[in-house]
Amino acid sequence: QVQLVESGGGLAQAGGSLRLSCAPSGRTAGTFAVGWFRQAPGTEREFVAAISWSGASAYYADSVKGRFTISRDNTKNTAYLQMDSLKPEDTGVYSCAARTYIATRNPSDYAYWGQGTQVTVSS
């Protein structure tokens, strides 16, 4: 069982930046793709970005393309989501998730999840 822990959420002004991190709570083995998802109150969880295990492939939702960057450092067993040019509509609980091998956009494909971290963007 893989448990993930997110960090780096908080409050930012519109136009500002935040960086989220995602790491397993214990030792892990295997090749895991990582996805970031977010959920605002009263809405369904939505895909934000995903990255393959090697880092060679990355995918973004249209709403964040050009503003957010997903990356990973496998030497530190950590994935990141750099969020720039934040907008109030980016507000929500951001969760990272992991699955073996292939990164996808569908949250149902991911077996392992973190608890989430709150991101609030003020106008």
Describe this structure as you would to a colleague:
The chain is mostly beta strands. Helices cover 0% and strands 50% of the residues. The protein has no helices and eleven strands. Strand 4 (32-39) and strand 5 (46-51) form a beta hairpin. The termini are far apart. The model has no long low-confidence stretch (mean pLDDT 94).
Distinct helical segment count: 0
| Spans of at least 5 consecutive residues with low confidence | none
Give the % helix.
Answer: under 10%
Alpha-carbon distance between the termini?
40 Å
Proportion of residues in β-strands: over 45%
Largest sheet: 7 strands, mixed
Write down the overall geometry: globular
Offer a quick outline of the entry:
This protein has 123 residues and is an all-beta fold. The protein has strands spanning 4-7, 10-13, 18-24, 32-39, 46-51, 58-60, 68-73, 78-83, 92-100, 112-113, 117-122.
List keywords for this structure.
single chain; 123 residues; mainly beta; 7-stranded mixed sheet; 4-stranded antiparallel sheet; globular
Sequence-ordered SSE layout with sheet pairings:
Layout: E1 4-7, E2 10-13, E3 18-24, E4 32-39, E5 46-51, E6 58-60, E7 68-73, E8 78-83, E9 92-100, E10 112-113, E11 117-122
Parallel strand pairs: 2-11
Antiparallel strand pairs: 1-3, 3-8, 4-5, 4-9, 5-6, 7-8, 9-10, 9-11
